[in-house]
């Protein structure tokens, strides 16, 4: 039996300085998988396997593939390492290939906006991927500080605004909630 494909795949951006961008994209992934779609998430600037979504995908969600292209350590905005840049470029090459092949219905490029803001990759390269993506592929770009070129090229842009975050009350990252 053939599986469903989207008639019209669009480009979505989740940006802003509040919490909820990566988790919004994972919510979309869950919804898509429920309808029989296949999801590929590429996480830029992340290298730790200690994320609940990675463990959940491996154990329970064969239709959700998560690949990371970053180091475990934080990237310095002013002075990224050569490896940070190389991994971001490699991530973009993987994304380009996965999107053009069209096997995955929903492709999430997690933290790609941050990678652009940190100048690890070029907006022109991302715009090229957006322009040439197959019609049926839904593309989601997450991360703070989405550049204007990218939000202009997108069909849907949601900005998550920081109103309150427990971090500022001294609550550090919690397993199962922040990672
Ligand atoms: P989440 O992964 O929880 O959906 P996010 O993708 O919106 O968050 P990022 O900008 O990617 O947020 O932030 C990375 C980490 O910092 C995540 O663990 C996130 O939960 C946490 N975080 C998000 N917003 C804030 C904030 N305003 N202050 C402190 N920590 C935050
Ligand atoms: Mg995030």
TrEMBL record:
<protein>
    <submittedName>
        <fullName>Cob(I)alamin adenosyltransferase</fullName>
    </submittedName>
</protein>
<keyword id="KW-0808">Transferase</keyword>
<dbReference type="GO" id="GO:0008817">
    <property type="term" value="F:corrinoid adenosyltransferase activity"/>
</dbReference>
<dbReference type="GO" id="GO:0005524">
    <property type="term" value="F:ATP binding"/>
</dbReference>
<dbReference type="Pfam" id="PF02572">
    <property type="entry name" value="CobA_CobO_BtuR"/>
</dbReference>
<dbReference type="GO" id="GO:0009236">
    <property type="term" value="P:cobalamin biosynthetic process"/>
</dbReference>
<dbReference type="InterPro" id="IPR027417">
    <property type="entry name" value="P-loop_NTPase"/>
</dbReference>
<dbReference type="InterPro" id="IPR003724">
    <property type="entry name" value="CblAdoTrfase_CobA"/>
</dbReference>
């Amino acid at each position: 039996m053939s599986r469903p494909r989207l008639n019209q795949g669009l480009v979505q951006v989740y940006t802003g300085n509040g919490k909820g961008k990566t988790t919004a994209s994972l919510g979309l992934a869950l919804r898509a998988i429920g309808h029989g779609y296949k999801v590929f998430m590429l996480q830029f600037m992340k290298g730790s396997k200690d994320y609940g979504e990675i463990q959940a995908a491996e154990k329970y969600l064969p239709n959700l593939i998560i690949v990371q292209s970053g180091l475990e350590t934080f990237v310095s905005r002013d002075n990224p390492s050569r490896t940070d840049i190389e991994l971001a470029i490699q991530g973009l090459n993987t994304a380009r290939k996965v999107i053009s092949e069209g096997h995955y219905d929903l492709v999430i490029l997690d933290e790609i906006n941050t990678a652009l803001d940190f100048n690890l990759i070029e907006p022109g390269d991302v715009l090229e991927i957006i322009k040439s993506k197959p019609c049926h592929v839904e593309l989601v770009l997450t991360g703070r500080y989405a550049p204007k070129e990218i939000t202009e090229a997108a069909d849907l842009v949601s900005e998550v605004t920081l109103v309150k975050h427990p971090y500022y009350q001294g609550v550090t990252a919690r397993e199962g909630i922040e990672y």
